[in-house]
């Protein structure tokens, strides 16, 4: 074995940067030809585009087949036990438009459930329905015990005068949604000219509105103290279609009050700790207001997105209804005595002339259920799944199209050196055209990934609903973990897709390359993401809460979200462009910044604000490490010099010792 002496090798500070570069990628280099969104680009993710087109064609085929086989009357009009529609012209039930439900408690036996029919006598005389019945149904409640007199049962559980006024909207909700839309539009327009003032008004008003909600909930909670029956719990009443029932229970107002108190405390604490960062976020919102002012058509683009999403929802809902009603009525043989043909499929039109009626004189051919024996009916559940999956895919594609369109328009504003002279004539239409012409496949790819995760979440919710009565705690725990993981995965994919679409709108790359570039850019500016981007999202969230509190309409949050999404997309686009600008340019004459002077001053390119102390701390740490490394290198050099000096001294001593010996040998000669 040969022992090699250990040598001291100096380690430079650059070696510590190697793992970091793998996590964040290489920074952008200066390019004198880069002037914003690239116009000379090619088609991306063509294979996914072809797949998406084929899927849409298959979706249309499924819809056409469903529309030809389905019958929506099965869910609109009531049917009797024979599967015939009540009150339909040309049938024997033409003069009987109302459906009366039997006492279902008389049918609760295993024999009845196997036979698919209720063999007991229900009523001796069909009761006269009330004149003001709704939708052809007499809505009855299931009694806890069978009554002796069917007429008394009818009078007790099918009350005259009952309508659906408490469950069917009378138009007030629609007016409220219109008001929410108008308020949102006015709020956005005011933010264009008074961004700073409106943000502070939004913050104060949100706190006051939530405070008023807390006071109102407490007053209602105190008022119901003297009301009889108001102390029952929400668990006791269960699920009710009439929301007004919940408002007469004290526990409901107590829950509302607790939720609002927690929300109020969280908002106040965030405002206290983020007070200085809010000033920077307001500056970013002001810059977004200027961008929206130059691209005013962006305010109305959410209407196009809303219309397309509504079209997708309508197509999915109609197709789902036709698919669910495309089953054919199946008739079975029912008899009171033993019969070899019992529960066999029969045809009521030819039953009286068949051999079954001769063998079993007391047998009847009655309606059992809706189904079918063809391949279409056997694989009907797969068509429903395909309908659901394409719904998610199309809805996510429409959302992605809106995001990349707005991102392209706002990126054109940011990278215009002379604003607004260098802006294109129609930035929204130009960006929309580029997205549809070159990036349909990439948008479909991103929407496909998100849709797969969302469908998995739907399946997990379905399994959770089916396993609610199960006693296996491990299965429930595992299912809860899976639901949580896929919820987090969906949020991450949405965040990554959003930023990938911004990079795609700027550089025209495919989805994977854009997602990689966006992720690395965010990792290189992770502190700015937390300081600026998320604080701005928090302020816009307060604006949504304010509109919901002012209109007090269910669904107004979605309306407000549609309009505020323009601001959110503008802020995210400007933020990524700002980070790119800092990497590409240095503010000199040859490499000027594209950002506005106001944005440059507030966001502190020189990093004088305390919110950018973290990057400076990182630089200080790096400099300290480099200084320590230099000191270690100097120590090593000094040690090496000492060793060399000692070696030289030792050699000198050996030479001096050899000289006397040589002189002694020369004397005898």
TrEMBL record:
Pfam families noted in UniProt: Choline_transpo
UniProt keyword DNA damage present: no
Protein's cellular compartments: Cell membrane; Mitochondrion outer membrane
Residue stretches of biased makeup (Basic and acidic residues): 658-669
Protein topology in the membrane: Multi-pass membrane protein
GO CC annotation: mitochondrial outer membrane; plasma membrane
Molecular functions per Gene Ontology: antiporter activity
Sorted UniProt keywords: Antiport, Cell membrane, Glycoprotein, Membrane, Mitochondrion, Mitochondrion outer membrane, Phosphoprotein, Transmembrane, Transmembrane helix, Transport
Domain of life: Eukaryota
Catalytic reaction(s) noted: ethanolamine(out) + n H(+)(in) = ethanolamine(in) + n H(+)(out); choline(out) + n H(+)(in) = choline(in) + n H(+)(out)
Region annotation (Disordered) ranges: 605-669
Keyword Membrane among record annotations: yes
Ranges that cross the membrane: 46-67, 172-190, 197-215, 253-274, 294-318, 390-417, 538-559
Role description: Choline transporter.
Family according to the record: Belongs to the CTL (choline transporter-like) family.
Name of the protein this chain belongs to: Choline transporter-like protein
UniProt source species: Scleropages formosus
Higher taxonomy: Eukaryota, Metazoa, Chordata, Craniata, Vertebrata
Name of encoding gene: SLC44A2
């Amino acid at each position: 074995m040969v022992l090699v002496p250990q040598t001291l090798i100096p380690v430079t500070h650059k070696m510590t940067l190697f793992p970091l570069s793998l996590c964040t990628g290489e920074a952008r280099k200066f390019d004198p030809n880069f002037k914003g969104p690239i116009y000379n680009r090619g088609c991306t993710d063509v294979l996914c585009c072809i797949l998406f087109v084929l899927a849409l064609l298959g979706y249309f085929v499924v819809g056409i087949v469903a529309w030809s086989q389905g019958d929506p009357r099965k869910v609109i009009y009531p049917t009797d036990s024979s599967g015939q529609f009540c009150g339909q012209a040309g049938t024997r039930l033409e003069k009987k438009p109302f459906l009366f439900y039997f006492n279902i408690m008389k049918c609760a036996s295993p024999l009845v459930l196997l036979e698919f029919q209720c063999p007991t006598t229900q009523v001796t005389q069909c009761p006269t329905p009330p004149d003001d019945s709704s939708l052809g149904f007499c809505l009855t409640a299931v009694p806890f015990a069978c009554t002796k007199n069917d007429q008394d049962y009818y009078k007790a559980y099918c009350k005259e005068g009952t309508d659906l006024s408490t469950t069917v909207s009378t138009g007030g909700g629609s007016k409220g949604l219109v008001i929410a839309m108008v308020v949102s539009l006015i709020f956005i327009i005011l933010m264009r000219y008074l961004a700073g003032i409106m943000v502070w008004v939004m913050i104060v008003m949100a706190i006051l509105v939530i405070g008023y909600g807390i006071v109102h909930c407490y007053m209602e909670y105190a008022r119901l103290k003297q009301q009889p029956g108001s102390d029952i719990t929400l668990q006791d009443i269960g699920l009710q279609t009439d929301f007004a029932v919940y408002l007469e229970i004290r526990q409901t107002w107590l829950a509302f009050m607790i939720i609002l108190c927690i929300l109020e405390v969280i908002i106040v604490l965030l405002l206290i700790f983020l007070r200085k960062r809010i000033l920077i976020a307001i500056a970013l919102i002001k810059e977004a207001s200027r961008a929206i002012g130059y691209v005013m058509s962006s305010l109305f683009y959410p209407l196009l997105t809303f219309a397309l999403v509504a079209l997708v929802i309508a197509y999915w809902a109609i197709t789902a209804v036709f698919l669910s009603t495309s089953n054919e009525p199946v008739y079975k043989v029912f008899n009171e005595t033993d019969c070899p043909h019992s529960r066999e499929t029969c045809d009521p039109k030819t039953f009286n002339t068949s051999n079954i009626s001769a063998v079993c004189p007391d047998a009847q051919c009655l309606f059992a259920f809706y189904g079918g024996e063809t391949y279409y009916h056997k694989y009907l559940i797969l068509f429903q799944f395909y309908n659901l999956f394409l719904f998610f895919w199309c809805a996510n594609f429409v959302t992605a199209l809106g995001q990349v369109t707005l991102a392209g328009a706002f990126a054109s504003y940011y990278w215009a050196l002379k604003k607004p002279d260098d802006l294109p004539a129609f930035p929204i239409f130009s960006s929309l055209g580029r997205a549809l012409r070159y990036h349909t496949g990439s948008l479909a790819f991103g929407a496909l990934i998100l849709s797969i995760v969302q469908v998995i979440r739907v399946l997990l919710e379905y399994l959770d609903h089916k396993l609610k009565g199960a006693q296996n705690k491990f299965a429930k725990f595992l299912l809860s973990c899976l639901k949580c993981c896929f919820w987090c995965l969906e949020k991450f994919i949405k965040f990554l897709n959003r930023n990938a679409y911004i990079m795609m709108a700027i550089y025209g790359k495919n989805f994977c390359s854009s997602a990689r570039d966006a992720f690395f850019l965010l990792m290189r500016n992770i502190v700015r993401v937390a300081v600026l981007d998320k604080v701005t999202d928090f302020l816009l969230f307060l604006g949504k809460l304010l509109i919901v509190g002012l209109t007090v309409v269910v669904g107004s949050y979605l309306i407000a979200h549609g309009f505020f999404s323009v601001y959110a997309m503008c802020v995210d686009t400007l933020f990524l462009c700002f980070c790119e600008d800092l990497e590409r340019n240095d503010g000199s004459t040859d490499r000027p910044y594209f950002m506005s002077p106001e944005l440059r001053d507030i966001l502190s390119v020189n990093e004088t604000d305390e919110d950018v102390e973290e990057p400076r701390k990182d630089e200080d740490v790096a400099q300290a490490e480099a200084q320590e490394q230099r000191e270690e290198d100097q120590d090593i050099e000094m040690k090496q010099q000492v060793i060399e000096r000692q070696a030289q001294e030792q050699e000198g001593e050996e030479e001096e010792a050899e000289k006397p010996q040589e002189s002694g040998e020369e004397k005898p000669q």
